């Protein structure tokens, strides 16, 4: 192992308890995507910690979503930057986890965002702190904090994604600190398109239901067609919510349902749009009408040589320093890494903490994985 990394890893070990507390603090500040106040409280906490070390802080103010933040150590250094990234927003409403939101045992930490993705933020900050304490000044190291990732950045109309890309431009490596699955790095992710089908029929009394036009029946027929698409390696469709009707003795005039569709390639995204329009325009129940709306979209992260070369270089660093090498993996979930990769930024995803049950009340992260994630991140910044 290189002497510099031996010292760096020892510093991470010395600081880890402080950053376990850091993680507890930011997870106890609950911050679902639609709670600007909570997200901004998380960013203020992190910026205050960064300010102690004199790191450069840039804030992109947002009216609806939380503010997006970029924190830079060594902003005046000449080398190509390394960027760490994570999102501050979570998925569950405030209060669902009780008070305090975070619980711990000897092995795990539980709570909203402990793994997805505040654990990744804590690991990145720990890596930067250790680099700082060891006098590292070779290159700028940035931590970019996203604020509406869980809703595909619709609240900011993608402005937060544009801010991230601006701050990551020209970097030698962009490491997204989404949850890590032991020994795997994500180089390929599915994209997401979310649609709303709003169906109109004609109301009537149930006693003369044949005089009405049932919007729920039309929705059911459309859903059956949509749900036929379940290719793990291609297009998938899931109809996740539905509402319609007013009374059980009335033919429903209105029905609205939403669709989450996923894809691996741009051509598959185009095919999804064709499928949605075809089914929306087809009336299975005579007399119904349908309005189709694209509610949000997120591009896929397609495998490319640029990211494969970055992973190869990272694995060389890990081999030289007794760290576990990473396999090339894929995910059916979306992330900001897709947008960065599409803009030509060399990118590796899923290098945060390890745990499980994301987006559930049982979400957890392994406490020991905080230091391990910080080592992975710090080693890349130091050696690449």
Outline the structure in words:
It is a single chain. The chain has 384 residues and is of the alpha/beta class. The chain folds into 2 domains: 3-189 and 300-383, Aminopeptidase (3-Layer(aba) Sandwich), CATH 3.40.630.10; 191-298, Alpha-Beta Plaits. The longest helix is centred in the N-terminal third of the chain and has 26 residues, at 3-28. A hairpin with a 7-residue loop joins strand 1 (56-60) and strand 2. The chain is built from 9 helices and 16 strands. Helix 1 packs across helix 3 (118-133) and helix 3 (118-133) packs across helix 9. The chain has helices at 3-28, 36-51, 118-133, 159-168, 215-226, 266-281, 305-320, 337-342, 369-383, and strands at 56-60, 68-73, 82-87, 103-104, 108-110, 141-146, 173-176, 184-189, 191-200, 236-244, 254-263, 289-298, 327-331, 347-349, 355-356, 364-366. The model has no long low-confidence stretch (mean pLDDT 97). The strands form 4 sheets. A 6-stranded mixed beta sheet has the order 1-2-6-3-7-14, with helices on both faces. A 4-stranded antiparallel beta sheet has the order 4-5-16-15, with no helix packed on it. A 4-stranded antiparallel beta sheet has the order 10-11-9-12, covered by helices on one side.
Short description:
The protein is an alpha/beta fold and 384 residues long. It has helices at 3-28, 36-51, 118-133, 159-168, 215-226, 266-281, 305-320, 337-342, 369-383, and strands spanning 56-60, 68-73, 82-87, 103-104, 108-110, 141-146, 173-176, 184-189, 191-200, 236-244, 254-263, 289-298, 327-331, 347-349, 355-356, 364-366.
